[in-house]
Amino acid sequence: MRIFKFGGASVKDAAGVKNVAKILNEFAGEKVLVVISAMGKCTNKFEDLVHAYFHGTGQAKNILNEIKDFHYQILKELDHNSSISLYNDVDNLLLELECLIENPNNLPDFDFVYDQIVCFGELLSTRIVSNYLITCNTRNQWIDARNFIITNNRYRDGKVDWEKTEHLIANRLKPLAEKSLVISQGFIGRDSLNATTTLGREGSDYSAAIFAYCLKAKSVTIWKDVAGVMNADPKKFPFATLIPTLSYNDSIELAYYGASVIHPKTMQPLKARNIPLFVKSFLNTGDAGTVVSETSAELNAPCYIHKSNQVLMELSTRDFTFIVEDTLKEIFTILADHKVQCNIMQNSAISFSFVADQAEDRIVKISEIFQQLGLNVLVHSGLELLTVYHGATAQVDQLIEGKQIKMEQRTGKTVHYVLA
User: Fold this and answer.
1) Alpha-carbon gap, residue 388 to 339, rounded angstroms
2) Where are the beta strands (DSSP E) in 167-276?
3) What is the pLDDT of residues 210-267, one digit of tens each?
4) Could you write out the DSSP letters of every residue in 28-84?
5) Domains of the chain from N-terminus onward
């Protein structure tokens, strides 16, 4: 059994959908389960819809119409007068979404509302791909990932219930996957009350790893618009080069520090079952790409990871008393409760500082809570985080030239720069 994952860039338009069909045709006769993300940058548009609906801005209907137009344009370009309609399932999903947003929101939990709406991106993309494959005489079984991936009720960051999920996949999904190509969604699951949950942004990679673990797959292939895993983002760093092989541990480190090719949660289940991960280009399928495995040599070349839209929060005691374990426990509990992940952190006797992704609503909320605890709070927004893994080189001086270093942190293999 192979697991394939296609991201939004691979199905951003009709040509992309046709290319996915062509790639899958190359593996005809093999057992393959395919995980597909929302089309193009559609998740961003669905997030706009969530904000408009939740806050009652009056723009929800207009945004929904944009979503409809985008998907219908792709269907129009794919439709080749087949006797099989490409539209029915999509029409039904869009009608369901429209009914959902017709009534004003009366739910206080933004994250819950987010998950119930954003999931439609994956549902729509997979229906379109599945139905198009059928018109091309490629038999496949569309499944709803929410029937198999079970999580807790931590919306927008669902934690997988591995016992229930593995039982469902092994007993109900595996017999289907043994007989037919399977098309499913990334990113989504459900909780014990049957409400939709999501696994965190870019969680489709993680979904592929979950299916792979539970099906004891031969391999996972993530199809990207780049040649494989690079030592830097080629869109930001012109010197970026391909990393042909990568160990599980190095890939986990890179993902944790923010490398965008592999989702941070993806590697643990693959490592647990020693399932190799291939990262390949959907534009040049014959290229070798990158293989991540247990047997790959340890990385010894520097990797450059850049994250924008970062915020540095500095906490200190008002009476200059020590920040002790009890205070740190309160700080980390607040961060966990509000789903704020520290990208890096530092502490001294009387202060604690951390860098996180800039999510305005969460940063404002936790700032208020920290002030209520009696802490001084200083927030620096609009920052960049540059991480150099496996040693700094002369290129770092060029990368940070002319920028103010707000924080610098060094460990055995890694150096971080927080830049303004």
Assistant:
1) 25
2) 181-185, 188-190, 196-198, 219-224, 245-247
3) 999 999 999 999 999 989 999 988 888 888 899 999 999 899 888 888 777 687 789 9
4) TTS-EEEEE--STTHHHHHHHHHHHHHHT-S-HHHHHHHHHHHHHHHHHHH--S-SS
5) 2-217 (3.40.1160.10), 303-419 (3.30.2130.10)
